[in-house]
Task: inverse folding
């Protein structure tokens, strides 16, 4: 099974222009308007889907985050118009769960809340609107964060930054006191791209892909400040994530709360992580290569949290908390649900969300404040975020 139209599009671009950075390949594989894995609506989460995430466990995740949203509203001094902006909302189920909880348990906050989803793809907007139809008066959509005016409220995302295109770089060893970095590009097999000899046109069209290594495509891919790396050390550089974070951080007042999996900079670039963090998944299984099931599989890389926090700082936001999901949700439960009697399905969901061997340790939560400096329940058990992030 393959996505023939998408493969032909990628082949055509390489054939015309030569090898492309992996970030461009990943952009096409995931976000091509008609055939990309996300843009086409093919992305499927849950136990029967391609990957499993927090929302997959059921409504409890939205219930717990709603309690945190309500506390933020209180600490913002109960604004009459609290805007919650979600980006990477998938089918809108989290938004429905959170709004349902606010309506039931925090009526004043619910009355003040409007919910906006940043969604560039029509097929996902349609699914979100269907799942949020009972909240039609509360919800709105924009295609890009750039389409929003500054607002007072919360920007929320769950597994947004890990899916942004990354460049792949590899060390060529140390020379003249610095690591020599090269970049991995995607080419047609046997170099059958622009400028390469190709006597048979049909052979070029049907050629599979391979990695080739050359000098980096842009100077901001050179992480000289990270130290020395031995030859063969591979890692990712995500230029899109800090750029997006700096755009998000332009909100007038409030918080950016993002949940994802990754590492602070020092750990992300640890020498023992010498093959990087890129992963390809389909039907809950890891695939060996990004060239398998192109457009039919998820491609992601772990988040390098320190760069995200620094990008937010450049737009005037301040790190308020950074901790793993276990401690974050435990903080919310201890503050707002200390005596709650969770039903059996919620207890199972809690085990998945909190257990260190499941989602509790692999996911981290970063919150950044814009004209907001108070401590939140979810971070009462966290350490100093600047020290943890090394910024």
Result:
């Amino acid at each position: 099974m393959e996505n023939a139209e998408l493969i032909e599009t990628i082949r055509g671009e390489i054939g015309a222009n030569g090898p492309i950075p992996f970030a461009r390949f990943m952009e096409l594989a995931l976000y091509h308007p008609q055939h990309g894995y996300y843009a086409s609506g093919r992305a499927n989460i849950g136990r029967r889907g391609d990957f499993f995430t927090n929302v997959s466990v059921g409504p409890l995740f939205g219930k717990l985050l709603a309690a945190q949203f309500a506390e933020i509203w209180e600490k913002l001094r109960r604004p009459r118009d609290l805007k919650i902006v979600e980006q990477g909302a998938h089918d809108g189920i989290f938004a429905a769960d959170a709004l349902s909880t606010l309506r039931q348990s925090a009526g004043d906050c619910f009355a003040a809340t409007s919910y906006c989803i940043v969604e560039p793809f029509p097929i996902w907007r349609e699914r979100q609107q269907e799942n949020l139809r009972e909240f039609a008066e509360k919800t709105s959509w924009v295609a890009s964060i750039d389409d929003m005016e500054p607002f007072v409220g919360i920007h929320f995302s769950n597994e947004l930054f890990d899916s942004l295109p990354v460049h792949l770089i590899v060390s060529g060893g140390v020379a003249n006191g610095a690591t020599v970095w090269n970049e991995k590009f995607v080419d047609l097999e046997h170099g059958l791209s622009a400028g390469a000899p190709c006597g048979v046109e049909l052979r070029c069209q049907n050629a599979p892909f391979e990695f080739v290594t050359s000098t980096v495509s842009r100077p901001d891919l050179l992480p000289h400040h990270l130290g020395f790396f031995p030859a063969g050390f591979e890692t990712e550089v995500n230029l899109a994530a800090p750029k997006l974070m700096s755009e998000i951080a332009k909100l007038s007042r409030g918080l950016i709360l993002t949940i994802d999996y990754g590492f602070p900079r020092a750990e992300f670039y640890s020498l023992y992580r010498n093959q990087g963090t890129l992963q390809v998944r389909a039907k809950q299984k890891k695939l060996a290569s990004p060239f398998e099931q192109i457009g039919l599989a998820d491609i992601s890389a772990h988040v390098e949290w320190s760069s995200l926090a620094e990008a937010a700082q450049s737009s005037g936001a301040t790190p308020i908390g950074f901790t793993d999901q276990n401690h974050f949700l435990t903080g919310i439960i201890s503050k707002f649900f200390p005596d709650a009697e969770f039903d059996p399905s919620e207890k199972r969901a809690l085990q998945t969300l909190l257990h260190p061997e499941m989602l509790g340790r692999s996911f981290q939560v970063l919150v950044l404040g814009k004209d907001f400096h108070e401590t939140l329940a979810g971070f009462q058990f966290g350490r100093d975020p600047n020290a943890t992030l090394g910024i």
